[in-house]
Design brief:
This protein is mainly β and 160 residues long. It has no helices and 9 strands. The strands form 2 sheets. The chain has a 5-stranded mixed β-barrel. The chain has a 3-stranded antiparallel sheet with strand order 4-5-6, with no helix packed on it. A hairpin with a 6-residue loop joins strand 2 and strand 3. The chain is elongated, with a radius of gyration of 21 Å.
Length: 160
């Protein structure tokens, strides 16, 4: 603390890892979650990579019982299992503005109608909250990818 300053100055040491993929880059990650809209992929330190259903191989279908995508290749059904390594191409990157604590999220839609009511205020018990999924969290960057080309998709599908 310096006289007349009032602020605290502290010397810190840190490590920084920066992830900034470029358009067209081919990356290998792991399948983390599947739903009818597409596949969510993780590269370990970043989990907001999304492969939309429209960017999967032709003849890919969502298997509702298994909650997995299946690529129908000829007579074979190739399941895109969770935690499998997947090779994909970056097609788009979106940077989202993060709000400061206490500010309204500029990327969120208006949720005033769905705002929770304190217990007892409406005479109803509070609704249980939904478990947090990759799709429901709000990152500062979203990466969109494709596996719609030869050589892309699960590594187990292709010969080395």
């Amino acid at each position: 603390i310096y006289p007349g300053d009032g602020g605290v100055q502290v010397r810190v040491q840190f490590r920084l890892m920066m992830f900034r993929p470029f358009f067209g880059e081919i990356i290998v990650g792991k399948v983390r979650q599947c739903d009818s809209t597409g596949i969510f992929v993780s590269v370990g330190f970043f989990e907001h990579i999304f492969i939309p259903a429209s960017h999967l191989q032709p003849n890919s279908i969502f298997h509702r019982e298994e909650q997995l995508w299946v690529w129908k290749y000829g007579e074979h059904e190739l399941f895109m299992d969770l935690d499998e390594d997947i090779r994909f191409r970056i097609t788009d990157i979106q940077y989202l503005k993060k709000s400061a604590p206490g500010e309204e999220d500029p990327n969120a839609e208006s949720k005033t109608a769905d705002a929770p009511v304190p217990n007892g205020a409406s005479g109803q018990a509070p609704q249980p909250t939904q478990p947090k999924t990759i799709a429901s969290s709000t990152p500062s960057m979203k990466v969109f990818a494709s596996i719609k080309e030869d050589g892309l998709g699960l590594l187990s599908w292709w010969c080395d």
